[in-house]
Amino acid sequence: MPDVELSDDGQIVTLISGSGTRTRFHAIWLRDNAWDPETRSAGNGQRLIALRDIPPDLRIDRARIAGSTLTLDFQPEIKSIDYNVDWLLAHGYDNGPGREAGWLAPGTETWDSGLMSAIPLADFNRATADGGVLRNWLSQLRRYGFGKMTGGPVEREALLKIAALFGYVRETNYGRYFEVRTEVNPTNLAYTGLGLQAHTDNPYRDPVPTVQILYCLENSAEGGENMVVDGFAAALRLKAENPAWFDVLSKYCARFEYAGEKGVCLRARRPMIEVSADGELIGVRFNNRSTAAITDVPFDDMATYYAAYRRFGEIIDDPAMEVTFKLTPGECFLVDNTRVLHARKGYSGAGSRWLQGCYADKDGLLSTLASLETEIQEAAE
């Protein structure tokens, strides 16, 4: 186990590994993240105190390690608190200089057409009956932002059973779910036989739906194959080619709008490539059909912006970036709508093509996955 070092002023605790790696923690952070019964509820893990309850002149006057437990004595509270060393190291924040914009969260894996031979896949009946199968599939969805499910019932609203495996349907102006088939006078181009460029759905919403499910009920028409593209891979390819183009698409907001039906006028203002305050790549919004006039880019940067926008679209359209498949009745696919773009090839009027779609949210998916992973960890212990 590591050794421990306390600064002279009692404000910094340093864990020192056997190899000499030093991981520092501030006294205020340690006190705020205590797990003693007076600080955290044993039932739900929520804090029982606010930051105002911690003395502003807080300090640590003693630190020692015994086995896997670090014990700290806090003043002026006159309070001794135990910490699990492994938990501290897993939550360390002493990471050195900030990272360059465009880094990916741990466990995220980008992909291109090579994923065609290894599409994340699960059988509906097995995933419903076996938590391990469901866990593995959800884990792949988290990693790749995309997955297929086969063997589902060929019946209306079957897609709602898919959503119920991990979360809840997010209702929109399109209803709890929507039909994807040719219509006369359609309110959306998705309801025609036209091919659609790879896009993320509903960029005109804020927040955008974070998971989309498309479920096949009929598919005898010629054509109509589905395609998916990893928006993170496309964004990082753009960055590698021209960092200034990545920067301009992440620096300035595009505008998106939908007013295709009576009583609906949805608008959002977000970057096409979204990074967090510390540079993590967290989202892509790309939908040419719903892009409104872009007015938030300064005049001197507009030409560069459009050059970047054009190239980003070319990368997305590159067949080397896409995974293509044709759904059969009872099959569906899911995408992380903040990351993965989906498309459709055009199809003829002969035969029939009927899909149903709905939206859900990624927090439900990640919550279900975390719960299943915790069950496995607890069983192993």
TrEMBL record:
Answer yes or no on keyword Transcription regulation. Answer: no
Q: Required cofactors, per record?
A: Fe(2+); L-ascorbate
Give the Gene Ontology MF terms in alphabetical order. dioxygenase activity
Q: Which Pfam families match?
A: TauD
Source species, domain of life: Bacteria
Q: Which Gene3D superfamilies match?
A: 3.30.2020.30, Clavaminate synthase-like
Query: Does the record bear Metal-binding in its keywords?
Result: yes
Q: Where's the TauD/TfdA-like domain?
A: 124-359
UniProtKB keywords: Dioxygenase, Iron, Metal-binding, Oxidoreductase
Q: Which residues form the signal peptide?
A: none
Q: What family does the Swiss-Prot or TrEMBL record give for this protein? A: Belongs to the gamma-BBH/TMLD family.
Q: What is this protein called?
A: TauD/TfdA family dioxygenase
